[in-house]
Amino acid sequence: MVPSNFDPLPGFPEAQAIGVALKSALEAALPGRVVYLSTIGAQAGQSNLLTQHGMIEKAISTVRVPLTVLRPAWFMENCSWDVAPARERGVIPSFLQPLDRPIPMVATADIGRVAAEILQAPWSGHRVVELEGPERVTPNEVGATLAALLGSPVRMEVVPRESWETLFKSQGMKNPMPRIRMLDGFNEGWIEFERGEAGSRKGSVTLESVLKVLIERQGGVR
């Protein structure tokens, strides 16, 4: 698992350096087997924030050890940013749009469990495992689930795409285009599992259970 970089330099030099270092370390250590935590859409042809993982995947693709690339979906825990506005204003700004588009999501608990299972099971060669939750989730369903858990009305509100670059720069980002293109990829459907929904492994942790934990961590229901 490599550090996340949400504001990379143009051309992703940081990911290139990580790929070189990781390949060198694996070739020196030759562990019995390796699971690399990548992401859905790492194979996408259009450059975006997730391209970093595709570059690292390619860098380690020739290591002489059993290698599983684990590509999870959008983390359900990203909804942690939605709890406060849902509770305080009853409105959640959404970069995922349209609001009725199902998005592949997964809980980090499922990612950890599957990674541990893979590490404990023997295999040979290199392979890709794609992982999502029990069902795909729309932004509207996120809002409705939060509303039910908080006991107060909640609605999702689209953040206009034309405002993203200015907004992200105002938040301190220097190179927001990779993040914008990643969001485009989810919204337009070209960030997807390589084998599609039918070919992905399904987790068992639901969005509702994740949101319950996030609410409790942020002070519970008021």
Protein architecture, described:
With 222 residues, the protein is of the alpha/beta class. It has helices at 13-29, 51-59, 80-88, 108-120, 139-150, 164-170, 177-188, 207-217; strands at residues 34-37, 67-72, 74-75, 91-94, 105-106, 126-132, 155-158, 201-202. The chain has a 4-stranded parallel beta sheet with strand order 1-2-6-8, covered by helices on one side. It has a two-stranded parallel ribbon with strand order 3-5. Strands 4-7 form a two-stranded parallel sheet. It starts with 12 loop residues before the first helix and ends in a 5-residue tail after the last helix.
Which descriptors apply to this entry?
222 residues, single chain, globular, alpha/beta
- Average pLDDT rating: 97
If you compute it from the alpha carbons, what radius of gyration comes out, rounded to the nearest whole angstrom? 18 Å
Task: Report the helical percentage.
Answer: 40-55%
Number of separate helices:
8
Shape: globular
Low-pLDDT runs:
none
**Helix/strand/pairing class, anyone?**
alpha/beta
Strand content: 5-15%
Secondary-structure topology with pairs:
Layout: H1 13-29, E1 34-37, H2 51-59, E2 67-72, E3 74-75, H3 80-88, E4 91-94, E5 105-106, H4 108-120, E6 126-132, H5 139-150, E7 155-158, H6 164-170, H7 177-188, E8 201-202, H8 207-217
Helix pairs in contact: 1-2, 5-8
